[in-house]
Amino acid sequence: MSSVHSKDVSLAISSFFVKCVGFWSATNRFEQWLRTITLMYTVFTIGFSVWVQIRDFYYSWGDFGACTYIACNILCLNIALFKILVLFLHKKGFLTLVAYMQKNFWSSKYAPHEETIFTSWKRICTYFICVFTLFTELSIVSYAIRPILANIGKNESDRILPFNMWLNLPLSMTPYFEITFALQVLALYHVGVCYICFDNFLCMMNLHVAAQFRILQYRFANIHRLKFNEGVPEERPGTSSACCSENCYDTFRKCVQQHQALISFCQKLEEVFRTVVLAQVLTFSLLICFVGYQVVLADLSSTRRFTFVNLLLSNMCHLFMFTYSCDCLIHESTNIAAAVYAGPWTNLPMNQCGKLLRTDLQLVVMRSRRSCRLTANGFFPVSLETYTSILSTAMSYFTLLRRNSEDA
């Protein structure tokens, strides 16, 4: 059964953001030149934003509320810059993973039941990416709209920018104000794109690999009803007792090859993203703590509080999407063992193919017990337990931060 996946919303959103950063593959010299210019603009924009926030932090030292507000911005900027630098070093590996998914996941032909599995997982991926992108975009818009609303009815000398810039210039006066405001908004949007683009792709890769493991479970459990013609699975009628052991073993062997390919893909995924995953885990606790402080304890205007509510929701959705996709990868790769054991091997005759299948089946079961997973640079695997651990750590930090603010 042919499948066309060009209308995948999650893929369209994720690829658009990655192209905006400058990390997509190029088909000609002009596109390569355009990607290079875009990447240089990305690095310059984030560097400019970091410089603005560090100067603001320096001049705001002593104001606890202002420092925690700036700390939120600096953490978001640093993690975005870190992702850019790490994935630039692994750019070839990242694009290889995308090309592999394009060829073997999105453009593959599936049997009817396999198509249903693939569609359901694609739908989950779309929900996650759309919700995460929505909250992030709302946060960006809130940062930009807040000073516009605050400036209504004010004189030129009292106007404020989205972010403080400590320069010896009349930045509140025309035309300095309009130019600076436009530059800050452009930088703000690009930083937001950098913050979410690679995480969208990581989530999409995890969930699509989990979908392939689920499809593989179906194939292992139904090797007596499947036949591969030119690599395309086709369902055929019949019972396990009447099936030919040679055909079953041939189908089983192709499933094992697919299992090996998925394991290799997960190893490459781990190699590319392991350092980024560690940075994510270390940053989330502090980021959620600082943003939560702004929402709950800080004396803010309603517009700024709304901005941080969106940012908190974005971070919570981001964390859940990140850990849930990794958890799905662990569980679906482990469930291969149960699917293999549930196959029709007990009804096969004890001929040469039947004995080979039983021997290979044991090897697949033993390998499946070692799950495919993403780790924080090898320190620990990321799963839904990581989600609860990060929230617990964030609450501990929040308690300390509240005590310090009360003492101050």
- Please mark out the parts with pLDDT under 50 across 5 or more consecutive residues, or reply none: 1-6, 239-243
- Structural class determined from secondary elements: mainly alpha
Radius of gyration: 26 Å
> What gap, in angstroms, lies between the N and C termini?
67 Å
State the shape.
elongated
Per DSSP, the total helix count is: 11
Biggest β-sheet: count, sense, barrel?
2 strands, antiparallel
The number of strands is 2
Overall average pLDDT: 84
Q: Roughly what percent helix?
A: over 70%
Topology pattern, helix = H, strand = E: HHHHHHEEHHHHH
Beta-strand portion reads: under 5%
Outline the secondary-structure elements.
Layout: H1 9-21, H2 29-59, H3 64-89, H4 91-106, H5 112-150, H6 176-221, E1 226-229, E2 232-235, H7 245-296, H8 302-334, H9 336-341, H10 352-368, H11 384-407
Antiparallel strand pairs: 1-2
Helix pairs in contact: 1-5, 1-6, 2-3, 2-6, 3-6, 3-7, 5-6, 5-8, 6-7, 6-8, 7-8, 7-10, 7-11, 8-11
